[in-house]
């Protein structure tokens, strides 16, 4: 195992960086999408129910099957990987964003409107900051989940560490097959832990001191 890693160290580092970059960029995109959808939905009970149901149903879709289906319109490579990772990343963030925004005390919103804030200003200066810890929790869930999904995206020749896993599984019993799978799995776990730690720090730095838990 040590020899396998040492001989391929530079390539493993490159693949790890590509894997992390894919997840982080998709996570940022998913957060923007989820917040926009949540901002549209959270004032309506019906739309809130629709958003929650979409999130629940979306999580039941097998990622491997979705990647296979997206190969048809998007081809192989980065495009289907980004589409699948972003899709699954949106779901927990959307659910948490809707919950966080709906739980903001209406009295605080009315007070903000009473002092002359517009609806947009109230959202960004009052509601979103109060809901932010819940949104961050959704981002952490998405980050952990999509680390694994990004590895599955290697089926569509997407970037990252999944190639080691699929390569090893395709030749089980052959030379270095176990080492290849173990390298991919361990590297994905390490990246997931590092990204989770980064999100915890970001949450601490971006959450108002008065509402920190």
UniProtKB/TrEMBL annotation:
Claim: Oxidoreductase is one of the keywords in the record: no
PROSITE patterns per record: ABC_TM1 (PS50928)
GO cellular component: plasma membrane
Transmembrane feature ranges: 20-42, 54-72, 149-169, 181-202
A Pfam family annotated for this UniProt entry: BPD_transp_1
UniProt subcellular location: Cell membrane; Membrane
Topological relation to the membrane, as annotated: Multi-pass membrane protein
Keywords: Membrane, Transmembrane, Transmembrane helix, Transport
Family (UniProt): Belongs to the binding-protein-dependent transport system permease family.
Protein name listed in UniProt: ABC transporter, permease protein
């Amino acid at each position: 195992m040590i020899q396998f890693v040492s001989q391929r160290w530079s390539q493993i580092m490159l693949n790890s960086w590509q894997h992390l970059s894919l997840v982080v960029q998709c996570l940022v995109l998913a957060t923007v999408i989820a917040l926009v959808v949540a901002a549209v939905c959270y004032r309506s009970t019906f739309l809130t129910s629709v958003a929650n149901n979409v999130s629940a149903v979306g999580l039941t879709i097998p990622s491997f099957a979705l990647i296979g289906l997206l190969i048809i319109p998007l081809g192989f490579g980065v495009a289907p990987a980004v589409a699948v990772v972003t899709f699954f990343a949106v779901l927990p963030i959307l659910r948490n964003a809707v919950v966080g925004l709906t739980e903001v005390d209406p009295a605080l919103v009315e007070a903000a409107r009473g002092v002359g804030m517009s609806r947009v200003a109230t959202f960004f200066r009052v509601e979103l900051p109060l809901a932010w810890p819940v949104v961050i929790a959704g981002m952490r869930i998405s980050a952990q989940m999509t680390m694994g999904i990004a590895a599955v995206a290697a089926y569509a020749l997407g970037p990252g560490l999944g190639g080691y896993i699929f390569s090893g599984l395709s030749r089980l019993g052959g030379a270095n097959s176990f080492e290849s799978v173990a390298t991919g799995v361990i590297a994905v776990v390490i990246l997931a832990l590092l990204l989770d730690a980064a999100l915890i720090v970001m949450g601490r730095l971006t959450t108002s001191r008065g509402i920190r838990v």
